[in-house]
UniProtKB/TrEMBL annotation:
This is Diaminopimelate decarboxylase. Residues 25-256 form the Orn/DAP/Arg decarboxylase 2 N-terminal domain. The lineage of its organism: Bacteria, Bacillati, Bacillota, Clostridia, Lachnospirales. It comes from Candidatus Weimeria bifida. One of its GO terms (molecular function) is diaminopimelate decarboxylase activity. It comes from the Bacteria.
Length: 399
């Protein structure tokens, strides 16, 4: 089999590295747009993968920004404030000040508590502007506010002369694989919106709903929540709501998971007590699949050897435990890989590593490097987004 952009990335950026295919992100957005009702917007949660925000700009409606650090990324890239939804369970006074100073009335803001509302009001008053604010409804955890708190706030809206009630924001969790969960949430939102409108006289014109669609990471895992059939049923649920305002579906994982590849090279192979271990130069500090447990599940993999890319021969007669380079017996990326014979120098490509994967490991453990990150698109080819970074200095006492 011949090489492709992954073999090229390996050649240029070495191992370990990540490659994100921005065309794949656009294909995902197009797939959702094609199925969702026309009135539905698609917003990209950048926490899933900040390297993809520029690619997401053209076809998604907004980017959800969940921390001051994320805001600084959008600012550094010159992302227009009109494209931003500023959220986050903690909004520090000095951060709100800087964000509002930069974004002014162009961005939309969420309030997750009464003190956040007051903070936004204070800052908007200072600049003599009026901010659009979503009120986030809780799902029973530290995020958002109770129904009654939101209703009371809206009945007291005159206290917030520099805020405009924009709508309701709701997100209850990720990796949802069952339509009945979405059905229950959509009904709950629909009932709450009616109740709120009746009790406050306020019209809800926007609903920002983080659907948390589940995605399949492992071989034999079913494609359920992002299958066409599921999404058509999900769309019918939206269409059948009594609520008739605008809807934005906010997603991270379901848009980005499929566009990421993690490349790590096998540097040693040995057999201990009858089990063959392949030791790679990456590890679980650099890659995480939601639901993975000591490599018990096999992700979608490919193999780079001598500049060519090959499928893993799942009928092969060899068994390997693919480990990383951490000093913990938990550093198992695949517990039992059935494949053709592997050699040192072979590079394993972990697929579907586009969302969260790079961010959920313990990257500073053992002072290993942060992998290089490359972006790929057909139009622009490969480009380096981040060089490999040493981390030892972050774990070194300053002299
Ligand atoms: C408020 C909010 N919206 C959306 C998301 C994205 O969830 P997912 O990646 O499952 O689409 C998250 C993830 O944590 C979130 O906190």
């Amino acid at each position: 089999m011949s090489g492709n952009f992954l073999t090229e990335a390996f050649c240029r950026y070495k191992s370990p590295c990540y490659v994100f295919d921005s065309d794949a992100l656009l294909r995902r957005v197009a797939f959702f747009k094609e199925i969702f009702p026309e009135k539905v917007n698609i917003n990209y949660c950048m926490k899933a993968n900040p390297f993809l925000i520029e690619a997401s700009l053209e076809f998604t409606d907004r980017i959800e920004v969940c921390s001051f650090g994320e805001f600084l990324i959008t600012k550094a890239l010159g992302i227009p404030a009109e494209k931003l939804l500023i959220s986050g369970v903690l909004k520090k006074e000095e951060d709100v000040e800087e964000i509002v100073d930069h974004c002014r009335e162009k961005a939309i803001y969420t309030a997750e508590s009464i003190s956040q509302l007051e903070e936004l009001e204070r800052t908007a008053r200072k600049y003599d502007i009026c901010l659009n604010v979503y009120l986030r409804l809780t799902s029973g955890n530290q995020f958002g506010m109770d129904e009654e708190v939101i209703i009371d706030a809206l009945n007291n809206i005159n206290a917030y002369g520099h805020l405009r009630f924009y709508g309701i924001h709701y997100f209850s969790g990720t990796q949802k694989h069952k339509l009945r969960i979405h059905e229950r949430e959509i009904k709950k939102l629909d009932d709450f919106i009616s109740d709120l409108e009746e009790k406050t006289g306020q019209k809800v014109s926007h609903l920002e709903y983080g659907s948390g669609f589940g995605v399949p990471y492992f071989i034999d895992q079913k494609e359920d929540a992002t299958s066409e059939e599921y999404l058509r049923d999900f769309s019918s649920l939206l269409e059948n709501m009594r609520y008739s305002g605008e809807i934005s579906i906010e997603m991270g994982r379901a848009l980005a998971f499929d566009c990421g590849y993690y490349l790590t090279t096998i540097r040693d192979i040995k057999t201990n007590r009858g089990r063959t271990y392949a030791i790679a130069d990456g590890g679980i500090h650099q890659i995480n699949y939601d639901g993975q447990l000591r490599g018990m599940y096999t992700p979608y993999l490919e193999l780079i050897r001598d500049g060519n890319i090959y499928s893993i021969d799942s009928e092969g007669e060899f068994h390997y435990t693919i480990c990383g380079s951490l000093c913990t017996a938990n550093d198992i990326m695949v517990a039992d890989l059935k494949s053709q014979k592997l050699n040192t120098g072979d590079t394993i490509v972990f697929k579907r590593a586009g969302a969260y994967s790079l961010y959920e490991g313990m990257q500073l453990f053992l002072s290993h490097e942060l992998p290089a990150v490359a972006l790929y698109s057909r139009k622009e080819g490969l480009r380096l987004a981040r060089e490999m970074q040493e981390t030892f200095m972050l774990n070194t006492v300053r002299k």
